[in-house]
């Protein structure tokens, strides 16, 4: 989860450096587990996600990943996720086809 925290921080810093740049974060397995509001161990990550969202970062959750880890939409903080992708991998591939860059840290 340290890597995830670094990724969220990087997305936030990118958006802070250039508010006009469009930044999305898609949460796949196992990272999607960090969106669970019921898990105290994810509080630092949730705080970072909230900060990134305030800067304009869009948060997408993969529905297949959520199902794989037993996570329901009710387990998520209201307003935390901007969009639910039915299949995260296909979502990413479509974004690449559209000309988006993907960054993995």
From TrEMBL:
<dbReference type="Pfam" id="PF02635">
    <property type="entry name" value="DsrE"/>
</dbReference>
<dbReference type="InterPro" id="IPR003787">
    <property type="entry name" value="Sulphur_relay_DsrE/F-like"/>
</dbReference>
<dbReference type="InterPro" id="IPR027396">
    <property type="entry name" value="DsrEFH-like"/>
</dbReference>
<protein>
    <submittedName>
        <fullName>Uncharacterized protein</fullName>
    </submittedName>
</protein>
């Amino acid at each position: 989860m340290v890597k995830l925290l670094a990724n969220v921080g990087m997305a936030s810093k990118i958006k802070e450096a250039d508010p006009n740049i469009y930044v999305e974060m898609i949460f796949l397995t196992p990272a999607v587990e960090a969106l669970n509001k019921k898990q105290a161990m994810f509080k630092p990550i949730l705080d970072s996600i909230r900060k990134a969202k305030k800067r304009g970062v869009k948060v997408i959750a993969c529905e297949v990943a959520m199902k794989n880890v037993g996570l329901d939409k009710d387990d998520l903080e209201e307003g935390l996720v901007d969009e639910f992708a039915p299949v995260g991998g296909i979502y990413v591939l479509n974004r690449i086809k559209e000309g988006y860059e993907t960054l993995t840290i």
